[in-house]
Amino acid sequence: MSQDVPSPLLRRLEQAARSAGRKAYAPYSKFRVGAAVLTGSGRIFSGCNVENASYGLCNCAERSAIFAAVTAGERRITAVAVHTPTAAPTMPCGACRQVIHEFGPKALIVALGNGRARVETRLDALLPHAFGPKDLK
Questions:
Q1: Cα–Cα nearest to 32, from 45, 22, 19
Q2: What is the CATH number of the domain that holds 73?
Q3: pTM for this structure?
Q4: CB 129, CB 97: distance < 8 Å
Q5: Could you give the residue numbers annotated as active site?
Q6: What is the pLDDT along the chain (137 residues), one digit of tens a residue?
Q7: SS3 content of the chain, % helix, strand, coil (to 5)
Q8: Residue-range definition of the domain harbouring residue 51
Q9: Residue 121: inside a domain
């Protein structure tokens, strides 16, 4: 799967996700997540989770990274790296999967934990039969 993304670029994406997690605002959960997205133009955008005392107003790292990319004019995502402060990698939540689908229905997803373990998959494997723009026609 990662053969679609050259190794040096994939390492940069993963490092951007790890680095973004250090900037997370997670005073309630203490679960600092970082994410980075690789866009169709080859640019990398990162984001972290941002919590709020009104829990429903929190934003996940993946969506923060995607929204930064969209704000910069990007519309296609080819890969997403997510780093969580856990021994085993953690996949994006359902809401993030849906937002990733909007811009990268077949995006490579790389989940990283604090150890050497990593999981690589494709978004369409995580979110089969997804609802998307085609369903609104």
A1: 22
A2: 3.40.140.10
A3: 0.95
A4: no
A5: 62
A6: 667 899 999 999 999 999 999 999 999 999 999 999 999 999 999 999 999 999 999 999 999 999 999 999 999 999 999 999 999 999 999 999 999 999 999 999 999 999 999 999 999 999 999 999 999 98
A7: 35, 25, 40
A8: 2-127
A9: yes
